[in-house]
Specification:
By secondary structure, the protein is mainly α. It is built from four helices and no strands.
Length: 223
């Protein structure tokens, strides 16, 4: 009788251990799947857009928006931009900078469920507001109104880049950790019951602009 009880108890303990182990593996797999989606659908594209935007913006500043004296035409205290310089700015904004930040905003709007935080970080709300403001400005340009050349709110360039880089790096580290656990489990011996566990915007001193769409570094057009 006692031998039967012991056998039943050992079987129950084995079943419970297997159940808990499978539950833990399932939870890890679910977490890994979410991290993969966060990287591939949100933070990866955001990082690519911010880093590419930084390079393009700096190229614009050095190639098309720097005067012979090394200063930006939009720098505080200097001569105001000429009509030719403003025309060049509108071209770059319309064809390069605005589409780029619109793509960032669209990721935030359509993939908000993949955010690492429980609430939308303020920097992403600032991004969305900046894009909407620039869309109004661009619409005025389309109607021949060139009295404004900025968004009504500044672009959070440095803060946005820092947030995206930090979040991407943290998720990559978590992904590597989860993958490492899964590899170790996959090498585990098969139990007797046959169940296998499964499971980086440069600031220019001569140009106060810190991003596309931020001519004077404060998001406010100078008279």
């Amino acid at each position: 009788m006692s031998a039967t009880v012991v056998t039943i108890a050992l079987a129950f303990v084995g079943y419970l251990a297997t159940y808990l182990n499978n539950l833990r593996l399932s939870q890890r797999q679910e977490r890994l799947s979410r991290v993969n989606r966060q990287l591939s659908e949100f933070y990866g594209p955001m990082l690519a857009l911010t880093e590419t935007g930084t390079q393009i913006f700096n190229a614009f500043m050095e190639r098309a928006a720097t005067r012979p004296d090394g200063r930006s035409p939009f720098a505080t205290g200097g001569e105001p931009p000429t009509s030719e310089e403003l025309t060049e700015w509108r071209l770059w904004v319309s064809t390069v900078f605005l589409p780029s930040i619109q793509a960032m905003r669209d990721i935030v709007v359509t993939k908000a469920d993949l955010l690492a935080e429980r609430q939308v970080p303020p920097v992403l709300l600032e991004l969305s507001a900046h894009v909407s403001g620039y869309e109004i400005t661009a619409a005025k340009w389309a109607n021949g109104d060139y009295t404004q050349h900025l968004s009504v709110t500044p672009f959070p360039g440095e803060e946005l880049t820092r947030y995206v880089r930090t979040s991407f790096t943290r998720l990559k580290e978590e992904q590597a950790s989860l993958l490492g656990h899964r590899r170790r489990w996959s090498r585990s011996p098969v139990p007797d019951n046959g169940m296998v566990p499964t499971a980086g915007w440069r600031r220019l001193e001569s140009a106060p602009m810190t991003s596309p769409g931020d001519i004077n570094g404060r998001g406010q057009q100078r008279d």
